[in-house]
Amino acid sequence: MNGTGTGTATPLLLGVRHHGPGSARAVRAALEEARPGVVLIEGPPEADPLIPLAAAEDMRPPVALLAHAVDEPGRSAFWPLAEFSPEWVALTWALHHGVPARFIDLPATHTLAWDGNGDSDGNGGGTGADGDRGAAADTDVRVDPLRVLAEAAGYDDAERWWEDVVEHRGVGKGDALAPFTALEEAMTALREEYGDGGRERDPVREAHMRLRIRAAQREFEGGVAVVCGAWHVPALRRRTTVAADRALLKGLPKVKTDMTWVPWTNRRLARASGYGAGIDSPGWYGHLFAAPDRPVERWLTKVAGLLRAEDRIVSSAHVIEAVRLAETLAAMRGRPLPGLGETTDAVRAVMCDGSDVPLALVHDRLVVGDVLGEVPAAAPAVPLQRDLTRLQRRLRLRPEAAEREVELDLRGETDAERSRLLHRLRLLGIGWGAPAASRGSTGTFRETWRLRWEPELSVRVAEAGVWGTTVLAAATARAEADADAARSLADVTGLAEDCLRAGLSDALPSVMRSLADRAALDTDVGHLAQALPALVRSLRYGDVRG
Over the stretch 7-51, which tens digit does the pLDDT of each residue have? Predict the structure, then answer.
């Protein structure tokens, strides 16, 4: 490869925007043209054995690679991939064409150890780093390359600039590498100006990538293609010595890790969720990738369908008028095609009578979206996760990204089992469901739950695995440990109530012993009064739960 072309001497460097549908289409076109002998992708090398699962029939993005420390599952990192992520396109292209694929970023064994030393740029909630996306830096001084390029082009909105120069331009015939050449030139100028841009780990990560590229060039014939964040391309192009790169990697901290695929959601791909490489509109980007032909017409038809389902009067004439208005707005604003801003303005004016209230629904359901991915049963999982999956299937309690309310009638065995499962998970700190006030009944035989599955719950399940290999065993062990550690009488009576609701009969003797011990020693009337409500509720629940 020469320049950005192919050959054993020079790798084909395809710099992309993570979760950019335009980049994803360009990567596919470039790989079709270059036909490399191996595809290298930015991601943790420990995931190499998991790559074949990406071609499984029951693998449906968005998904994420999850790495967690074996001895401390809460120390974890995610590498999310959507259908429109360039890395996912590269991965599936390689699998479908029988071409080897490898991950080349800094191993998770170092990333997690680094994060454990308090240097994380994680995605919140103690879940560690988010891959490059990235694994870390001083976020107060980090340079946003897209924002800098957008400002240089006279735009005040980086997303709008990206849409105009990439998403709405497409890849011309015989011009598959042109987008990467232009983006590399821009990133080279930025790296000359800003260095590592405040990303303190990037030199180490890039040293590891260069070493992996060299190893692939020695191992494979037919050329090497590398799919990575465009920011890294100038550093990977730079000539360095093997000794210098190895010196940067010397002495890095390590921690033993496990890795698997887990379902992800569009909502967690969104920048508003705190994800470092998040995008503002994952649902819109997914639409652009899936419907490159007439995207505006198809999008507005989808919006009309959603509004009709919410009992708003939206006709075909509304769709036609909204398309015309979006195209007119794009022409007035000097844009090549209507973008999300123009379609949103058209929907507000034509379909929503100028109101932002129904528009909020469109943003939540379509612009962001409630898509939840699926991973095959063959993906590695802790025993507790496998038991939870089995129970979810048996009880027909499917995890979903959209929040929903579930009414349970505890007089029926299936609903009673669902209730026990949800209470056991809450006791384990796995907040899949939260109790809500029941409507239309004050009896103890009804429960209402609000359910929403978040990707981070996979980490909570891994953490809870230390208590047992099944949900019942783990909840029982956790309740017994909590009873021993309880500090107040009210804590123990609350735990006794939780055990009754969760059907943890084996844990109750330990909890009741702890209750008796504390009641005998605690003479404070206030403490006894605080403990009474949970005791009263426990007596009431005995009527339905047995």
Answer: 456 899 999 999 989 999 999 999 999 999 999 999 999 999 999
Pairing verdict, β 38-41 and 224-229: parallel
Q: Name, in order, each residue with C-beta under 8 angstroms of 218's C-beta and a sequence gap of 6 or more.
A: none
- Planar angle of CA 236, 188, 78, nearest 5 degrees: 55
CB atoms within 10 A of CB 543: 11
Q: What is the pLDDT of residue 130?
A: 39
CB 201 within 8 A of CB 106: yes
Q: Please give the full DSSP string across 384-417, using - where no structure is assigned.
A: HHHHHHHHHHHTT----SS-EEEEEETTSHHHHH
Residue 406 in tokens:
């579930």
Distance, in Å, from the CA atom of 419 to the CA atom of 438, rounded to the nearest integer, reads: 14
**Alpha carbon of residue 89 to chain centroid:** 17
Buried b / exposed e over 479-509, threshold 16 CB at 10 Å, is bbebbeebeebbbbbbbbbbbbbbbbeebbe
User: What Rg value do the Cα atoms of the chain yield, rounded?
Assistant: 27
Neighbouring CB atoms inside 10 A of 393's CB total 10
Can you spell out the DSSP letters for 112-170? Answer: HHHHHTT-----STT----STTTS---TTT---HHHHHHHHTT-S-HHHHHIIIIITT-
Partnered with residue 102 across adjacent β-strands are: 40
CA distance 101 to 194: 32
For 487-530, write each residue's pLDDT tens digit.
777 788 888 888 988 999 999 888 888 877 776 665 554 544 45
Q: Which residues of 432-463 are buried (b: 16+ CB within 10 A; e: fewer)?
A: bbeeeebeeeeeebbbbbebbbbbbbbbbbbb
Assess contact for 510 and 473: CB atoms under 8 A: no
Distance in angstroms (rounded) separating the CA atoms of residues 316 and 340: 20
pLDDT, tens digit, for every residue of 49-88? Answer: 999 999 999 999 999 999 999 888 888 899 999 999 999 9
